[in-house]
């Protein structure tokens, strides 16, 4: 089973994604963004702590930006939370926020393709959490527009290989 769970910020998507694998004996929780630093962003660190606190103790947490490897070598079911933080880490690593997009985007898309291919080939359960973007205001800043556009493409690429795509709005789950 492969499931993409999307929705707005604080919609309940992570909680729902966790509920899809809570009965699994072995779960690899993939945290693909930078670690939360309470000194730099106490609000973000507090939200990460809430997520960590509700995970069963037997889940293995893997902090990595190599999604393809995490999917291939994760143990048991794989839960990735979330593609938005992964994308941010990728663009940071490629120094893309201030560079010409055409110079780094092919590398990013190759990484997306690797991860999607790994998900398509695995027989294990994979649940991917992502943010739904582009349903509101056009971002004022270039970085916001880049993020919105790229995450829309990334979401589509993952959704194609999923058995189910779920939209979470106000804690309610809609199957798409």
UniProtKB/TrEMBL annotation:
Keywords: ATP-binding, Cobalamin biosynthesis, GTP-binding, Kinase, Nucleotide-binding, Nucleotidyltransferase, Transferase. Gene3D superfamilies: P-loop containing nucleotide triphosphate hydrolases. The keyword Transmembrane does not apply. One of its GO terms (molecular function) is kinase activity. Transmembrane segments: none annotated. Pathway: Cofactor biosynthesis; adenosylcobalamin biosynthesis; adenosylcobalamin from cob(II)yrinate a,c-diamide: step 6/7; Cofactor biosynthesis; adenosylcobalamin biosynthesis; adenosylcobalamin from cob(II)yrinate a,c-diamide: step 5/7. Belongs to the CobU/CobP family. This is Adenosylcobinamide kinase. It comes from Aeromicrobium halocynthiae. The lineage of its organism: Bacteria, Bacillati, Actinomycetota, Actinomycetes, Propionibacteriales.
